[in-house]
């Protein structure tokens, strides 16, 4: 079992950058594939990015490709999401999730553990 806690959210202007972190406050991340999801007000939760258990396979939603980078540091027990060229439509609560499997998934139903989320607001 693992407990996850996100940090790094905040208010940023369009075109700016933020780095989100997801730390394991209990347990370790190395057995898990990980994902970032986001949910904007009035919208369903959507997949943002995923990383395999060993970090060798990455996948992204089309809306964030070339702008966001997911990474995982098993030694530090931390998952990251580097976000650049942010747009107002990126505004959402961002959550990390862990899946006890080799590969990540774009479906939120495939994840076993979730963090509480961190708010990202991009102003125009």
List keywords for this structure.
mainly beta; seven-stranded mixed β-sheet; four-stranded antiparallel β-sheet
Describe what this molecule looks like in 3D.
The chain is mainly beta and 124 residues long. It contains no helices and eleven strands. The strands form two sheets. Strands 2, 4, 5, 6, 9, 10 and 11 form a seven-stranded mixed β-sheet that branches. The model has no long low-confidence stretch (mean pLDDT 96).
Order of helices and strands: EEEEEEEEEEE
Low-confidence runs: none
Radius of gyration: 13 Å
Helical run tally: 0
Helix proportion of residues, in percent? under 10%
Strand content: over 45%
Please specify the SSE layout and strand pairing.
Layout: E1 3-7, E2 10-13, E3 18-26, E4 33-39, E5 46-51, E6 58-60, E7 68-73, E8 78-83, E9 92-99, E10 113-114, E11 118-123
Parallel strand pairs: 2-11
Antiparallel strand pairs: 1-3, 3-8, 4-5, 4-9, 5-6, 7-8, 9-10, 9-11
Task: Summarize the structure in short.
This protein is mainly β and 124 residues long. The chain has strands at 3-7, 10-13, 18-26, 33-39, 46-51, 58-60, 68-73, 78-83, 92-99, 113-114, 118-123. Strands 2, 4, 5, 6, 9, 10 and 11 form a seven-stranded mixed sheet that branches.
């Amino acid at each position: 079992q693992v407990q996850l806690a996100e940090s790094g959210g905040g208010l940023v202007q369009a075109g700016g950058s933020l780095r989100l972190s997801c730390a394991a406050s209990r347990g370790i991340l190395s057995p898990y594939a990980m994902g970032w999801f986001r949910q904007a007000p009035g919208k369903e939760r959507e997949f943002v990015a995923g990383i395999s258990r060993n970090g060798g396979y990455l996948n992204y939603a089309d809306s964030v490709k070339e702008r966001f980078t997911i990474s995982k540091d098993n030694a530090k027990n931390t998952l990251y999401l580097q976000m650049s060229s942010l747009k107002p439509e990126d505004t959402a609560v961002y959550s990390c999730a862990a899946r006890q499997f080799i590969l990540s998934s774009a479906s939120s139903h495939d994840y076993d553990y979730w963090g509480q989320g961190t708010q990202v607001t991009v102003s125009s």
